[in-house]
Every structure is written in structure tokens, then in C-alpha cells.
Amino acid sequence: MTSNKNLEKNEVKEYFNGTGFDRWRKIYSKSEEINTVQKNIRKGHQKTVDDVISYVKNYPDLKSKTFCDAGCGVGSLAIPLLRLGIKDLQVSDISSEMIKETKSRINELGLSQRKIKFLTSDLEKLKGLFDVVICLDVFIHYPQPVAEEMVRHLCDLSKEKLIVSFAPYTPILALLKNIGKLFPGPSKTTRAYTLSEKGIINAANEKGFTVVQKKLNQAPFYFSKLIEFKKL
């Protein structure tokens, strides 16, 4: 399993440091140089980010909270978190290019980088303790056992809350995925996995976390289950 996991991680790293970087940088921007599918992915992901911010706004003593954004991408979540005036934020991504882009976007907006730590790292190698740990739309690149292992590790980093999102397994998504396998070529990126919601929840439960709320966000070509956990 370890060799398979390392293979998955290497594929993800190479993709997001290469052709995938430019593709997703455009998707998570205001660029019009994207197709209809990509625009719907942008819309769906923004829904997920907006929901997370709505959760976080209700946390007491927000300005004293520390956050970890694991798999930060180009900073879509990091930027609104900083605008909330949180105490500290650590952002990490397996891709150094994504970290560079996050830094650039924060700088262009004139936001202070004094409260933020940037880290190029595998998710499993992250260390520290944070009040809130967030990981959005990362698990789609990994199979169920690896995703559950990641959830357990993220729980170890969190003192209070864990928020994750992933593509949930449904018969419709499974069908779409199988259809996609019939069309090889440059449209293929990394492997895309739909995950068992029960498995993700059980992994968090094992670490003493329970579900606070759940929501399914969907736009054409975007399906993401958002779950907020709290530590018991």
C-alpha cells in the first residue's frame, strides 16, 4: 500500500507543478480563458469556500484562533481567512508552484504576510497543533484508505475543529467516472476518486471527532461533500 500511496502522491505533485498548475490557476481566478466545465468547477469550489467562511465567522474568539489550510492550492480559502483577522494561518501544498501562487495573490491584495506561514509539504508530514484544520477538495486525488489515513492525521493536528470536503461516492458519479475512462487523452489529469462518506466520518470518529454539520455542494461537473467536525 505504501508504494501505491507514494505513486499517487508523486503523480499529484508532478501534475500540480506542471501542466495542472496553469490549468487550475486559471480556474481559480477571474480568467475567461476557461471552458464551461471549468467555469462550473470554479462556481462549485467557490460555494464550498463560502460555506467554510460562514462556519468560521461563527466561531467565538476568532481573532485568537490558529488555522491550518492543508492543500491550499492558489489561496482561495487562505485569502478570506486572513481577511477575517484570525491570529495565525499555516498554508501548505504538495506543489511548490501552488505555494508561490498563493504568496503572489496575497501580496497583490496587500494583505499582511506576518500572520501566515507557507509550507511546501505532503499532507502526512504536516506537524503542529492548530485550533482549526481545513482541507478542501484534496482527497479526490487519493483512494479511500489513503484519504482516511489523511483524515486521522489531520485530526491529530486539530485542537477544536476539522473541516474537510471530498467527492462523495454516488451511483451517478461512479457511472460518470466509468464513462470518462473510455476517453483517454490530454483531458486526463490525475486519478479522481469518489469516497465513502461513512469511511471519512468513521476515521474522524476514531480520533474523537464528531460531525457538527454536513452539506453537499454541486454544480455541473462539481460534487463536493463538506463536513465540519468538532473534537469531543
From TrEMBL:
Tell me what organism the protein belongs to.
Prochlorococcus marinus (strain MIT 9515)
Molecular functions (GO terms): magnesium protoporphyrin IX methyltransferase activity
Q: Which domain of life is it from?
A: Bacteria
Q: Which GO terms describe its biological process?
A: chlorophyll biosynthetic process; methylation
Q: Which UniProt keywords apply?
A: Methyltransferase, Transferase
Q: What is this protein called?
A: Magnesium protoporphyrin IX methyltransferase
Provide an example Pfam family for this protein.
Answer: Ubie_methyltran
Magnesium-protoporphyrin IX methyltransferase C-terminal domain: from which residue to which, for each copy?
135-230
Family matches, as InterPro entries: Mg_prot_MeTrfase, Mg_prot_MeTrfase_C, SAM-dependent_MTases_sf
* Keyword Transferase among record annotations: yes
EC nos = 2.1.1.11
**Classification via Gene3D superfamilies:** Vaccinia Virus protein VP39
Does the record's keyword annotation contain Transferase?
Answer: yes
